[in-house]
Design brief:
alpha+beta; Arc Repressor Mutant, subunit A; SH3 type barrels; 4 domains; six-stranded antiparallel β-sheet; four-stranded antiparallel β-sheet; 11 helices; 23% strand
Length: 312
Amino acid sequence: MSKTTKLFDLLLYVNTKRSFTANDVAQEFGISVRTAHRYLLELGEMGVPLYTEPGRNGGYRILSSRVLPPIIFNEDEALAIFFSFQSLKYFKSLPFEVDIESASRKLLARLPEDVKKHVDNLETTLLFWNHKRDIETPLLKNAIKKAADKSIIEIKYQSKQQLTTRTVAPIGVYTNNGIWYMPAYDYQNKGVRLFRVDRILEITDSKKEYPFPDTTLEDILYSYKITEPVHLYVKLSDKGMISCKDNPYFETSVCVNTDGKGGFIEQTIDQRDLDYVSRFFMGLGVDAEVIEPLEIRKTIYSMARDIQEQYK
């Protein structure tokens, strides 16, 4: 086995260990203890974050920010990773500490010259853009950890209306449009609620024991369970159809009228979504007319009167 191969295998070995001795390395690779020390020294010079602990029970430890062994990507894989890095620039907060520019430079430095030129051309013509939010989310990493550990926690939460303390079971964390959200089972309200992580002011472990909910983040994001069905029927103009097709909530329910002019939506929604649906169609103005349910019609009428009063 060549020295280069041994160093590569040694890099894999130390990345799987919290601590080890030169004797451990010598036995693992069938080399002398002196050679093991020399190889470990070379790894340190290569940038692997090793440090030694002197004394009888000493040895080597690797810092928590471990260096990954070399990974070989093909051109398309490298480009996909590079531009994925670029899309992260638009997030104010990330669940991991990473210098995006540094990671991009390291990846770019390993690419062949012709591929580097290709990347330069693509950077001016290809962009995975997100609206950049200037919202700090200091408890993001903590929220993710508690969800991963299936911990029951107490949070201080600042909603639009008030500051409350909730006992919740965080099911996961996801991002949408630059904002981080945490679906969690709320034990006071006996149901899953959605919390903006940037509005969580404090997280502490609960002193009480509760059963953890039998659901996953995927269940919440990809399943829509209707518990209180409401029939929705809406007339749409051509512009209203375009707006509804742009909304994931309605996009699959938009139908075109038989004469090709305008269209309609007819679907079953849940009672809990009435406020959202009312506000959405209020925003479409004359390009949408809700026929059913009557409750939404009344809500939109009330909102329209409030706006009229405000602008008198």
